[in-house]
Amino acid sequence: MTENTDTAAKRSRLRWLTLGEAIAVAALILSGLGLWHEWRKTNEKALVVEQPAAIPLALRGEVKNEGRKIEISPIEDEHALQSLTVTVAGKRLAVESDGDLDADALADALGGSDRDNEQPQRVAARITARYIESGADKTATGSYVLTYRWKDKLFGGPRLRIVSLSR
Fold this sequence. Notes:
The chain is of the alpha+beta class and 167 residues long. It has two domains: 1-47; 59-166. The chain has two helices and eight strands; from the N terminus they run αβββββαβββ.
């Protein structure tokens, strides 16, 4: 009987060893298939999930030197201004990248109309801007309103003073 018990135990151990090997071989095959699938997938193009959205150009004006000039600059820090062209009353005024529009240049474009009126007045301005956003050169055009007034000086007559820039 000891012989039958020993052979039954050996067969039992052999059966477990064979089952363990079969599981290992199946795991190896599955791992190989997974590796082959991932390796084949590298030839596919990468999918871009999200691209940064372009931010539309919006300008602001900061009055400097008691209205003698206005600094026009982009609201967003991502925009780097290259040049501006301000069209007022059919005349173009070129503004450099610093964005400073001089009140005397605006007065010349307006032609000195309504110099006697010291109340704030408005004029439509078409601003064309060349700027850089995310490394790309872009151009934008927008309609703005320049508010100004004539201030009487003791010598030299009335002088134009810029009050604000608005959309």
